[in-house]
Design a protein that fits this description.
With 218 residues, the protein is α/β, with parallel strands linked by helices. The chain contains eight helices and eight strands, in the order βαβαβαβαββαβαβαα. Helix content is 30%, strand content 20%. It is globular, with a radius of gyration of 16 Å. The protein binds D-xylitol-5-phosphate and zinc ion. Keywords: Carbohydrate metabolism, Cobalt, Isomerase, Manganese, Metal-binding, Zinc.
């Protein structure tokens, strides 16, 4: 069986205290920190950019997993690599030349991820399997935390696991992961679970213990 990693998303963290929040989830058992970058163009929300990633990097002891919900992407890849991203995921839907964008990410010495929205089928990543280290399956429509898990994506995860076979590619699940849906996606073949609202609910920088309880529950 596959070891499951939890990647709390700071989209649901205290926006006035990102450094302290990253330290808190690291101390409470988070393996990765998922950083949701949004540009208000590819998705209907705006969060933060490379400067925030660089600022929180020293406060993250594990993997900084940067999820770019931006379009176009190529102009910003170097800035996120310089900011210290360990993984950079780009959306297949963000442009016409995503194979090239993935090559650029790897050329920058960063692990490359492709992210697919709920409407996008897995045949769309068939010719990317030798270019990626991770596939992020969106189980909500990107832009916001706290949304409901889209159940139709479970079958997609199962098919993806079969397609990937023995290749060293992570299947990351992003959106609506809770104590109810986590076992479903793990059984379907996922190994990295993003969770924002489910991890940060009930806690704060001053009282981070619930973060650990939430992470262990998932
Ligand atoms: C949504 C982001 C997700 C989101 C997950 O566009 O990509 O990472 O923060 O939040 P929850 O876990 O609350 O659904
Ligand atoms: Zn995300």
């Amino acid at each position: 069986s596959r070891a499951i990693k939890i990647a709390p998303s700071i989209l649901s963290a205290d926006f006035a205290n990102f450094g302290a929040e990253c330290q808190a989830i690291g101390a409470q058992g988070a393996d990765w920190v998922h950083v949701d970058v949004m540009d208000g163009h590819f998705v209907p929300n705006i969060t933060f950019g490379p400067a925030t990633c660089a600022a929180i990097r020293p406060h993250i002891k594990g993997v900084m997993d940067v999820h770019l919900m931006i379009a176009p992407v190529d102009a910003y890849l170097e800035a996120f690599a310089k900011a210290g991203a360990d993984v950079i995921s780009v959306h297949l839907e963000a442009g016409a030349h995503m194979h090239r964008s993935l090559q650029t990410i790897r050329a920058l010495g960063v692990k490359a991820g492709i992210c697919i929205n709920p409407a996008t089928g897995i045949e769309s990543v068939e010719y990317l399997l030798d270019q990626i280290d991770l596939i992020n399956v969106m189980t909500v429509n990107p832009g916001f935390g706290g949304q409901k898990f889209i159940m139709s994506q479970l079958e997609k995860v199962r098919r993806l696991r079969a397609l990937i076979g023995e290749r060293p590619i992570h299947i990351e699940i992003d959106g609506g992961v809770t104590i109810e849906t986590a076992p479903l996606v793990a059984a379907a073949g996922a190994d990295v679970l993003v969770a924002g609202s489910a991890v940060f609910s009930g806690g704060s920088v001053a009282n981070p213990a619930p973060y650990g309880e939430n992470i262990r529950a998932i």
